[in-house]
Design brief:
Elements: H1 5-16, E1 39-47, E2 53-59, E3 67-71, H2 80-83, H3 106-110, H4 113-116, E4 118-119, E5 128-129, E6 136-140, E7 152-156, E8 166-170, H5 172-186, E9 192-198, H6 200-207, H7 209-216, E10 220-226, H8 241-250, H9 254-257, H10 271-279, E11 284-288, H11 296-301, H12 310-328, E12 334-337
Parallel strand pairs: 3-6, 3-9, 9-10, 10-11, 11-12
Antiparallel strand pairs: 1-2, 2-6, 4-5, 7-8
Helix pairs in contact: 5-7
């Protein structure tokens, strides 16, 4: 494994190279990506944070009635500094919207082996097809800063008074519901449905599973939350309570929680895990995420515990992760895979680019 790390690093470096005539592209190193005949969908009322049209894509496989829905990740925001892209503050992806050619760009094309139906080949290791090879595919880009579940249009004001206010549309929930309704009409007879996502999209996979599964009514459904944990945090003694309280208000999550079964506790986001496990006892759910994740963990604690160190952040993360694992253990249809570390993306996300590492 250690000998392969330089090759993996080379492949990852190709993702970061600027476009140039003589640059090495990821396609020169990685045997991956996809060549699907993607179909673009634009729905009324589905918008990005800047008010531009929200877009998503699907591929209709001629050989399968199984489907993957993948929610894209890319941070989150809940105030002026984070939603305006202020230097030094963690923020959210695609503040300028989703262009019409987004699905052919590098991130969407290469980021998900689950969407591509294969763990890609790199020098020294061949490409390997996986169980989702040949399935129908749905790729849900991310541009609302609200882990695909917000329901609020808000004007954020610069606390320094220097810059003009910004209007930010946390419209993720409406985009997700509109997409699910469209997909039900387009794919009325789904056999197996895998709802997944990475990072912010991992949160979305767990937070929207109830609505998506009930709308699409597949024969069998699966949930794979990659590195977007819904940590239990019922009161202020829990590490993620401050984050959860903040986004509950910023994204108007109460308007969404009221649509969920009574087994969901709106004062404890982590109860979503228990709710879906009990509502759908014949489905299979899983969470995966690294114990050394220094990406999502920063969003969880960095701005809520001033002066906290990396060691302090990871200590809180591991405590929260332990609480989540103990919760998952209560349900026979919910499992977990929690490795320690890999040299990709600060140990953040288990199913992006490759499963190796």
């Amino acid at each position: 494994m250690r000998a392969r790390t330089p090759l993996l690093a080379l492949a990852m470096a190709a993702l970061m190279l600027p476009s140039a005539a003589n640059a090495i592209g990821i396609e020169d190193i990685v045997d991956g990506g996809n060549t699907y005949n993607w179909q673009l969908v634009e729905l009324p009322g589905a918008v990005c944070s800047n008010g531009s049209q929200y877009r998503f894509w699907y591929y209709d496989s001629p050989t399968s009635n199984n489907m993957v829905i993948s929610f894209e990740g890319g941070g989150a925001c809940w105030d002026y500094p984070s939603c305006s892209g202020q230097t030094g503050i963690l923020g959210a992806a695609n503040p300028n919207g989703i262009p019409a050619d987004y699905i052919t760009q590098m991130k969407a094309k290469y980021v998900s082996p689950l969407i591509n139906g294969a763990d890609p080949g790199i020098p020294g290791r061949a490409k390997n097809n996986i169980v989702t090879n040949g399935w129908d595919m749905v790729y849900m880009p991310y541009c609302t800063g609200d882990v695909h579940v917000g329901n609020r249009v808000v004007t954020y004001t610069d606390p320094t008074g220097v810059n003009p206010p910004i209007t930010f549309r946390h419209n993720g929930y409406n985009n997700t519901v509109a997409a699910a309704n469209f997909l039900h009409g387009r794919f009325p007879s789904i056999n197996k449905l895998l709802v997944t996502g990475f990072s912010a999209g991992g949160v979305a996979s767990g937070a929207t599973f109830y609505q998506v599964r009930r709308t699409l009514v597949p024969t069998k459904a699966y949930l794979l939350n990659d590195s977007g944990p819904l940590f239990p945090a019922p009161n202020s003694s829990y590490n993620s309570y401050l984050l959860h309280s903040t986004i509950k208000t910023a994204w108007n999550l109460a308007s969404i929680f009221s649509q969920l079964p009574a087994s969901f506790n709106p004062n404890d986001f982590g109860s979503m895990n228990s709710m879906v496990a009990t509502q759908f006892p014949n489905d299979r759910m899983a969470y995966t995420g690294y114990s050394s994740d220094y990406n999502f963990s920063r969003f969880s604690y960095e701005r809520f515990y001033p002066g906290i160190t990396q060691a302090g952040i990871l200590a809180k993360w591991r405590a929260d992760q332990t609480n989540l694992i103990n919760q998952i253990k209560l349900y026979s249809n919910y499992s977990y895979h929690v490795p320690w570390h890999r040299p990709i993306n600060d140990s953040h996300c288990d199913s992006i680019i490759t499963f190796m590492g």
